[in-house]
């Protein structure tokens, strides 16, 4: 019996059991936390650039803070990916999540520009690690036949988080208050998750820890109200140990290179549009909210395109990136053509939102 066959028993032949819905829902709150952290500088920038702020930032320092943060995200993705493959999904997840929340509390105590930059670097590292481990962990606790839809629901919740962050920025103008409101409430989703949720049975099986994997499946089934005997799981086939050096295999290196270039381009466009919204609309909270909401239909469209027989994955990806090209270049054209004209913000914002819709679909 493989993992998917075991999941059929865990869910009693349904797509998901009630406990799977419960844990998936709680884990989705992680995506809101990650969205808050990734876009926090958009709503903090007006506060930190105010000359009345004790250690106010210059335009260059604002850009530096965003760059340092994304450097931390890259490091967190790399390091936590290795840690999660070595030590499992559960332990890194429940180590990074509370650390990120606690760090935001300490972030209210920043006393200088340099301390703020250090805070953002560490915050980026933890956010990058949490985003990676959290997504993989929640997917591996689900049967593979729902991965297409769950993989689009997760970034959809991320987009809703961006919209809520804009609301926080509109309601509050205190640096400390924004940091605390965007982090402390997630303690209430951390505690219920910590009690009872098992390690990923798929990861345990990949490590040839068959008895522990079977016990995790039994626990999930019991939580769903289904009586299940320990399944007789198949040992994973012998072969090369999984690791980062696998990308240099001739069969995957060209594919990894192409996808790496595509993801680099998508990230550049996505965060370029998201983190520089203050120049696209007089009120950055309005443009931030719209940029989050516009992603929601993109994930719905992406799901149906991916699952359609005609488009599939390859054509959906090509179509999305062509839309990104049109959106980004139309934004540049609108900025040049409507410079200094009344109503120019609407043309620029509309073009940027179309690009954001397409690049969100490309990520799916």
TrEMBL record:
| Annotated signal sequence range | none
- Where does the record place the Major facilitator superfamily (MFS) profile domain? 23-364
Keyword list, A-Z: Membrane, Transmembrane, Transmembrane helix
The record, for InterPro entries, names: MFS_dom, MFS_sugar_transport-like, MFS_trans_sf
Its placement in the membrane is given as: Multi-pass membrane protein
UniProt-annotated location(s):
Membrane
One Pfam family recorded for the sequence: Sugar_tr
Task: Report the protein name in the record.
Answer: Oidioi.mRNA.OKI2018_I69.XSR.g14795.t1.cds
Q: Which organism is it from?
A: Oikopleura dioica
Q: What is the lineage of its organism?
A: Eukaryota, Metazoa, Chordata, Tunicata, Appendicularia
């Amino acid at each position: 019996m493989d993992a998917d066959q075991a999941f059929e028993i865990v869910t009693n032949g349904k797509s998901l059991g009630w406990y799977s819905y419960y844990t998936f829902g709680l884990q989705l709150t992680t995506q809101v936390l990650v969205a808050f952290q990734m876009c926090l500088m958009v709503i903090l920038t007006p506060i930190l650039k105010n000359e009345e702020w004790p250690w106010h930032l210059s335009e260059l320092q604002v850009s530096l803070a965003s760059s340092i943060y994304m450097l931390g995200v890259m490091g967190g993705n790399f390091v936590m990916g290795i840690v999660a493959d070595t030590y499992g999904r559960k332990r890194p997840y429940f180590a990074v999540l509370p650390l990120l929340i606690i760090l935001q509390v300490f972030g209210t105590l920043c006393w200088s520009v340099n301390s703020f930059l250090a805070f953002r670097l560490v915050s980026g590292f933890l956010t990058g690690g949490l985003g990676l481990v959290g997504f993989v962990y929640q997917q591996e606790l689900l049967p593979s036949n729902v991965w297409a839809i769950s993989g689009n629901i997760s970034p959809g919740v991320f987009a809703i988080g961006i919209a809520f962050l804009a609301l926080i920025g509109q309601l509050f103008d205190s640096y400390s208050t924004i940091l605390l409101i965007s982090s402390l409430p997630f303690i209430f989703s951390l505690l219920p998750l910590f009690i009872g949720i098992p390690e990923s049975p798929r990861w345990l099986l990949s490590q040839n820890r068959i008895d522990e994997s079977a016990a995790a499946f039994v626990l999930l089934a019991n939580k769903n109200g289904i009586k299940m005997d320990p399944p007789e799981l198949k040992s994973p086939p012998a072969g090369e140990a999984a690791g980062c050096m696998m990308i240099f295999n001739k069969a995957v290196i060209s594919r990894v290179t192409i996808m790496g270039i595509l993801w680099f381009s998508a990230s550049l466009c996505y965060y370029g549009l998201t983190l520089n919204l203050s120049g696209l609309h007089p009120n950055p909270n309005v443009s931030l909210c719209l940029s989050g909401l516009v992603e929601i239909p993109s994930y719905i469209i992406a799901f149906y395109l991916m699952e359609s027989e005609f488009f599939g994955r390859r054509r959906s990806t090509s179509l999305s990136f062509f839309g990104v090209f049109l959106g980004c270049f139309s934004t540049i054209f609108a900025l040049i053509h409507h410079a200094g004209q009344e109503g120019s913000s609407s043309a620029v914002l509309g073009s940027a939102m179309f690009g954001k819709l397409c690049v969100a679909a490309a990520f799916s």
